[in-house]
């Protein structure tokens, strides 16, 4: 078997100002400590770590930004960049049967690291390159980081789980605490209201959401502006628009009296041209985004960081908020054609470090006000470094796209450890069949669901769908979120996912395929037919003797309740679309 060694790992730069050293040490996997030295403090030039790896039994590539494309790249493609506010420096190459072939993780997850890894046509090997200092950073003399290389013959999802645990143990990477409330279903105003918010209507939907099992409300964009153009020209002052929410404190109190938590949305980097804050900050921008009618604040200025931190502190304290949805953090960037200049008023020269300081200050200040504060981040700022500051990671916007929502939730789960992973907000067509509407919920079973339909306007059949499946989720929450998760065939968008503990095993099936529950099953087995197909085919490795089988349809109606005995082997079971089978 091929083993990477310090001799095969090249560290190169066009500059002659740098000296390199690579130390190799091995525990359960291989670690390579990269040391780079300069004689004096300089802006480090680009440095590349590279090696070739055999393309042996590798059919799929997974990384945090792959989404629905888990294909192998060619080595002339761009790859992906990871930093604190974007993705994570992790990639996994795996076989068709989900076995790890090569998992790489880099310890520097704050500053920009580019992964360019793909098939080299001439050699037929993987050409693996990690590019450092491709973006402006701070002046320095010393640099150290560790490359973790895992080629063990284990399932890829176990390899990624181990990567997540490794990051948690690194200095400065301890994840933020996760309150119990962060792992409860929530109601979001975004798809149901967009910017057309009214306090009374939010309260009406919140009351209905509580009846169905939601435990928090997220009020999104619109609370701070009377403009409905979906832009950000009025962002930056963060004062409640009186025509929408006349008294924010009383409004939050009403939601709290219903037994619900309250989270409020902020677009962190934007300051709009029509805001009162614009004259103050118009010269403290990374750039001006004409399409948004807003500037992107530059957090290297202490005044910018102080303003944002004080804004959130004041809101949490004065309005008694339980959490914040901090949006667009990945927009802290710069345009390629512009230079990232350092001005005398700045106290930090590195943009990545400035974002880190900002997020640290936000977390520290808000946690002092409320130790159980919830902070939601959205793909793609979901890496191990951001776990320090956010305790909810949500799938990127994919309205009505159940498959993308499924892929996003599982991609997040694989690296997120105990951080709460939330679906994108659920929505469906009011005329959809019950089974079709249920697919939106079934595709995000292994994450915390967020609803964004006007529940007060749902038809009876859709209310039944929401009530049954949310009740199902809450009943089995422990095994769904805390059980041993296995996500199969990422190249095929996870057509089968399971999670189990000592008492239950849940298998969700998302395509027409053979279902193999396995051996040594716990007392209760739940199969979820997350398709519109009307049969499941089981391949049993152990007999089911004197089991009770209950089958529920998409609206929670009990269709069958009977004793069964099934021998080992194949069994075809007729089931309703979007249904569940409970063997006990």
UniProtKB/TrEMBL annotation:
The keyword Iron does not apply. InterPro entries: Aldolase_TIM, Alpha-glycosidase_related, GH, Glyco_hydro_36. Gene3D superfamilies: Aldolase class I. CDD domains: GH36. Keywords: Glycosidase, Hydrolase. It holds the Pfam family Melibiase. GO terms for biological process: carbohydrate catabolic process. One of its GO terms (molecular function) is alpha-galactosidase activity. PANTHER family: ALPHA-GALACTOSIDASE C-RELATED (PTHR43053:SF3), GLYCOSIDASE FAMILY 31 (PTHR43053). This is Alpha-galactosidase. It comes from Halanaerobium congolense.
């Amino acid at each position: 078997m091929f083993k990477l060694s310090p001799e095969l790992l090249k560290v190169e730069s066009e500059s002659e100002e740098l000296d390199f050293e690579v130390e190799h040490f091995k525990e359960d996997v291989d670690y390579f400590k990269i040391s780079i030295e300069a004689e004096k403090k300089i802006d480090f030039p680009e440095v590349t770590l590279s090696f070739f790896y055999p393309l042996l039994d590798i059919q799929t590539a997974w990384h945090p930004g792959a989404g629905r494309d888990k294909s192998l790249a060619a080595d002339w493609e761009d790859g992906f960049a990871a930093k604190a506010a974007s993705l994570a420096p992790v990639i996994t190459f795996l076989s068709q049967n989900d076995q790890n072939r090569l998992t790489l993780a880099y310890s520097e997850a704050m500053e920009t690291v580019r992964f360019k890894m793909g098939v080299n046509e001439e050699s037929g090997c993987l050409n693996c390159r990690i590019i450092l200092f491709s973006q402006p950073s701070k002046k320095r003399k010393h640099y150290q980081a560790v490359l973790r290389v895992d080629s063990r013959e284990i399932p890829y999802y176990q390899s990624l789980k181990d990567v997540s645990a490794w990051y948690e143990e690194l200095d400065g990477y301890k994840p933020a605490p996760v309150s119990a409330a962060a792992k409860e279903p929530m109601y979001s105003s975004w798809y149901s209201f967009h910017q057309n918010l009214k306090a009374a209507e939010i309260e009406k939907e919140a009351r209905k959401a509580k009846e169905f099992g939601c435990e928090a409300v997220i009020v999104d964009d619109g609370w701070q502006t009377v403009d409905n153009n979906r832009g950000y020209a009025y962002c930056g002052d963060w004062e409640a628009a009186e025509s929408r929410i006349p008294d924010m404190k009383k409004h939050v109190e009403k939601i709290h009296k219903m037994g619900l938590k309250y989270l409020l949305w902020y677009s962190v980097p934007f300051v709009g041209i029509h805001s009162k804050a614009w004259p103050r900050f118009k010269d403290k921008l990374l750039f001006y985004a004409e399409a948004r009618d807003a500037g992107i604040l530059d957090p290297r200025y202490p005044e910018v960081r102080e303003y944002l931190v004080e804004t959130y502190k004041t809101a949490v304290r004065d309005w008694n908020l339980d959490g914040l949805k901090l949006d667009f953090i990945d927009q802290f960037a710069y345009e390629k054609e512009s230079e990232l200049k350092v001005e005398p008023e700045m106290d930090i020269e590195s943009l990545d470090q400035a974002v880190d300081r900002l997020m640290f200050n936000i977390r520290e200040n808000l946690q002092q006000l409320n130790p159980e504060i919830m902070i939601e981040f959205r793909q793609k700022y979901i890496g191990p470094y951001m776990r320090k500051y956010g305790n909810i990671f949500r799938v990127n916007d994919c309205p009505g796209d159940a498959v993308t929502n499924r892929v996003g939730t599982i991609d997040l789960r694989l690296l997120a450890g105990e951080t709460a992973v939330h679906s994108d907000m659920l929505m469906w067509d009011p005329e959809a069949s019950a089974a079709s509407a249920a697919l939106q919920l079934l595709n995000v079973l292994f994450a915390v669901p967020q609803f964004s339909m006007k529940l007060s306007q749902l038809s009876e059949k859709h209310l039944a769908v929401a009530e049954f499946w949310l009740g199902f989720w809450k009943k089995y929450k422990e095994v769904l979120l805390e059980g041993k998760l296995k996500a199969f065939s990422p190249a095929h968008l996870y057509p089968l996912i399971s999670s189990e503990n000592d008492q239950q095993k849940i298998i969700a099936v998302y395509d027409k395929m053979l279902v193999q529950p396995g051996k040594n099953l716990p007392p209760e087995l739940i199969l979820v037919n997350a398709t519109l197909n009307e049969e499941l085919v089981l391949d049993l490795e152990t007999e089911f003797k004197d089991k009770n089988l209950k089958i529920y349809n998409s609206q929670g109606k009990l269709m069958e309740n009977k004793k069964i005995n099934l021998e080992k082997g194949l069994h075809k079971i007729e089931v309703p679309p979007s249904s569940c089978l409970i063997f006990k």
